[in-house]
Design a protein that fits this description.
Shape: globular
Cofactor: [4Fe-4S] cluster
Distance between the termini: 57 Å
Number of helices: 18
Organism: Candidatus Lokiarchaeum ossiferum
CATH topology of the largest domain: Rossmann fold
Keywords: 4Fe-4S, Iron, Iron-sulfur, Metal-binding
Protein name: NAD(P)H-quinone oxidoreductase subunit I, chloroplastic
CATH architecture of the largest domain: 3-Layer(aba) Sandwich
Strand order of the largest sheet: 2-1-5-3-4
Largest sheet: 5 strands, mixed
CATH class of the largest domain: Alpha Beta
Length: 579
């Protein structure tokens, strides 16, 4: 391909391959504002914030969707362009509620940031405003169309990354609105509550449904025993909101913060992850050795489960029956831990700190109830916990480290990597190898299922006779491809599949801090694998607390007691088979 020589803001650049003006500008450290642009989806150019002047073209062009050509002379910040951008922001503000002081996105709003950059201090345009009803029907998210700036990021992510197609831009002109089919509520739509739309929304048009007040009320109630568990990826992401570099592990400080907030016991969900691996590894081995339904699909992701139940219920026989680590941990807290501490299970209020908005959906599933008690009573996303910590006046950066409470605080490196795509599969393969061979695998790291690729395939040798064809998938559009393959007869002969709804895994969950750069996600994943590398125990079956749990309470892998507390079932939602 011929090289291209262009000039951008006086800089001469030689390009080896075709790029957009925006890509070139970012590589050269030139700031061009955007509102609709996302690197991972096709550009729409709808917001026009990124317009630039190109010599020879009479009208400004959108930098996000205009490819450079040889000899192009580009100016990104002329007085004309400055005026256009400022006017766009003023027009958006003219139709915005302007309730910044009590909006959850105050201080974290891209429209607010642009208003500051372009020094907008008053209303230049007066007129009618769109008034649409607030949609609070979902158990996980709230939709406020009045704060929507029609950037279509949510639509693009839902369509191209997740292939759920729950929302779209409808009507025209002043009446334009992003909504679900037939203007139904989010609860009535095909939404799987993954939260990726919330993660990319530049304003407060899409936010998580918060229950912080319910958690605070229970913390203040002396008659309630408050316990909390923290998901594996949280310790590598929450620090970003307190000034730490992406990927910094702050688990010890987080335990201290939760104790100071008033929680009676703080547990590591990695214990639940190790427990999940014990049951899931055992299930996988039994399916292989007994010629039962294969491939087996790992099931820790509630957004994927909802997607499967709606779109591919015929694959239910392939699903592992194991609960997620969150629900397993909750069940054990309200049974084993309650028995050991002489606590009344009915008085336990179990909170889970999760990277995922769909965990709020998981909390309410009727199959995740044991002995009349829900496994989990409340779910807070990472972002909700950040706000709660700040409300309690706690500076995370200045806290000393503390340890998780025993006996549900002991964990392994295998459980820690659950937060990254491929981590569940790798942890299960480590224990599956041990179950078959009665010894640990020599090379602990399964590199083939690591990394940020959305579809990772590997052939894993358990014995000379058992070679597993594995695939780890993240992003529901990619999951759809694998599910379609299974419907076609499994041409790749997969035997073990891991699916996570969010691209890259839980490190990029819908409830995580809004790090939209791939580099941030890579640092988060790197942190989890580094923790695994440095753990003294890297196999779930070597977790001594898990071993004691089986010896004293669950008896053995796959026992009746284990199935009662640790396994679940699924529903065909496609034909109306609701819970």
């Amino acid at each position: 391909m011929a090289t291209k020589t262009i000039t951008i803001d006086g800089q001469t650049i030689v390009l080896e391959k075709t790029k957009t003006i925006l890509e070139v500008a970012r590589e050269q450290g030139i700031y061009i504002p955007v509102l609709c642009y996302l690197k991972e989806v096709t550009p729409t150019g709808s917001c026009r914030m990124c317009v630039v002047e190109v010599e020879g073209i009479p009208r400004p062009v959108p930098a996000c969707s205009t490819a450079v050509s040889d000899g192009m002379i580009i100016k990104t910040n002329t007085p004309r362009i400055q005026l256009i951008r400022k006017t766009i922001v003023e027009l958006l503000i003219a139709n915005h509620p302007m309730d910044c002081l009590y909006c959850v996105r105050n201080g974290d709003c891209e429209l607010q940031e642009l208003a500051e950059i372009y020094e907008i201090r008053d209303h230049q345009f007066q007129g009618s405003k769109r008034i649409n009803p607030l949609d609070q029907t979902s158990m996980a998210l709230v939709r406020d169309p009045n704060k929507c700036i029609l950037c279509q990021r949510c639509v693009k992510v839902c369509d191209e990354i997740q292939s759920v197609h729950a929302i779209d831009l409808t009507k025209r002109g002043f009446e334009s609105i992003v909504t679900s089919a037939f203007d139904r509520t989010i609860h009535e739509s095909s939404c799987v509550l993954c939260g990726q739309c919330v993660r990319v929304c530049p304003t407060g048009a899409l936010i998580e449904r918060s229950i912080q007040s319910e958690v605070r009320d229970n913390l203040l109630n002396p008659d309630v025993i408050t316990t909390v568990q923290v998901a594996p990826s949280i310790s590598a992401t929450i620090g970003e909101e307190f000034g730490f570099a992406p990927g910094t592990d702050v688990s010890g400080k987080l335990v201290t913060a939760l104790k100071r907030m008033g929680f009676d016991a703080v547990f590591d969900t990695v214990f639940g992850a190790d427990l999940t691996i014990m049951e899931e590894g055992n299930e996988l081995v039994k399916r292989i050795t007994s010629n039962k339904t294969l491939p087996m699909i790992s099931t820790c992701c509630p957004a994927w489960i909802k997607f499967m139940e709606q779109e591919f219920p015929d694959l239910i026989p392939h699903m592992s029956t194991c609960k997620s680590p969150m629900s397993m941990q909750g069940a054990i807290i309200k049974s084993f831990w309650a028995n050991n501490t002489n606590a009344d299970p009915k008085k336990i209020f179990q909170v889970a700190i999760m990277p995922c908005m769909a965990k709020k959906f998981e909390r309410d599933r009727t199959d995740l109830v044991n002995d009349g008690l829900p496994n989990t009573d409340a779910v807070l996303t990472t972002r909700e916990l950040v706000r709660s910590i700040k409300r309690f006046g706690i500076d995370l950066a200045k806290l000393p480290d503390s340890d998780y409470d025993d006996p549900l605080g002991e964990s392994t490196g295998a459980g820690k990597i659950f937060g990254a795509s491929g981590g569940v599969m790798e942890a299960a393969l480590r224990t599956g190898y041990w179950l078959v061979n009665n010894k640990n695998v020599e090379h602990v790291e399964f590199e083939a299922v690591r990394g940020m690729d959305s579809i990772k395939k590997a052939i894993i040798e358990i014995t000379p006779e058992i070679k597993l064809s594995c695939v780890a998938v993240s992003g529901l559009a990619n999951a759809r491809k694998i599910c379609d393959e299974l419907r076609e007869g499994n041409p790749n002969n997969y035997q073990f599949i891991e699916i996570m709804a969010c691209p890259g895994g839980c490190i990029n969950g819908g409830g995580q801090p809004r790090g939209l750069d791939r580099e941030v996600l890579e640092q988060r994943a790197k942190a989890l694998y580094s923790l695994d590398d440095n753990y003294s125990i890297r196999f779930s079956h070597e977790n001594t607390a898990v071993q004691r749990l089986y010896s004293n309470f669950l008896k053995e892998l796959g026992s009746h007691e284990a199935h009662h507390l640790l396994h679940t079932k699924y529903y065909n939602r496609k034909v109306g088979g609701q819970e």
